[in-house]
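debug: dumping io for the single-chain case to check the tokenizer round-trip. Nothing else runs in this session.
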Amino acid sequence: MTSADAASVPFSPIRWQDDTLYLLDQTVLPDQEVWLRCDSTELVADAIRRLVVRGAPAIGVAAAYGLVVGLQESPGEGSLRERFRQVSDILRATRPTAVNLGWALDRGQSRFDEVAEASDRQTVIQHLLAWAKKVHEDDVATNLKIGEHGATLFTEGDRVLTHCNAGGLATAGYGTAIGVIQSSWEAGRLGQVWVDETRPLLQGARLTSWELKRLGIPFRLVTDSSAGALMSRQMVDRIVVGSDRIAANGDIANKIGTYTVAVLAARHGVPFYVAAPLSTIDLATPTGADIPIEVRDEEEVTDVFGKRIAPQEIQALNFAFDVTPHDLVTAIITEVGVLKAPFGESIRRAFETASGG
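debug: decoded output
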């Protein structure tokens, strides 16, 4: 596929084919492109837990399909409703920070409740599958709108820094932060991208670089610790990142290291943008202090791709995410427009707009 072809068709790391779910294994990118067949609840849950699929929107879509996969399995003893609850509970327990996981499962529950009583098992499954496919399609459409709104914030020749990966790989297709970058590039408003490597799992080096190369967008890879040096030399005009959960007051949880970038941006007067769908905004979470932060295995810090880089028998702490206070955020780019401070008010208005209020 050429760069032009790649740009015209939103790439998705999630496929439903042969009556089951396939996920692009992001743990082996960029060396290999392997699609994993996930035909059981445990396989879907394991894929989410191991970061085979990652990024809040993508996790939500995978979970939606995961409900279908779970109901397709042998029902065993108990009612279909009990089976649905078991599947939902298994998926919900995989990762605590990404709010789209619970968002998708709650909506799946509502769809199940609408059809379960008056339908047989196969009909319920077909209804849920149609709903999951709609969740998938809607996320791509949402990301395209985010990209369109975000491009209006850029000017010709802008150099943008991004942290972690918030592209098509982290969504159902096109991406949030990378969607903004792609839309800005296509509009002639982007000079180049600085890609933070994003330790400890190198999502920037492995995944964002893979996507930008595929899209034909100019970029350079830098160490995470280079962000301050780049800004001090006036080599960064804007920053755009994604988010795994946004609190009702505009505080954002994103990949560890995002807070550091935001503090540096404030010090150097560089606009700091967050690109995310409304489904990532959790109105039930008042502030960032209320967001659960996932702590992952120590070996992700002490080892790199199976090779030990730290002395044996030491301890490490591996926060997967950090929280950036809303006063460090210049704007939140959503499918209904660009939200600015005061974020509590602009978020409320955004949800009213989305609901037709």
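debug: round-trip ok. The chain is about 40% helix and 15% strand.
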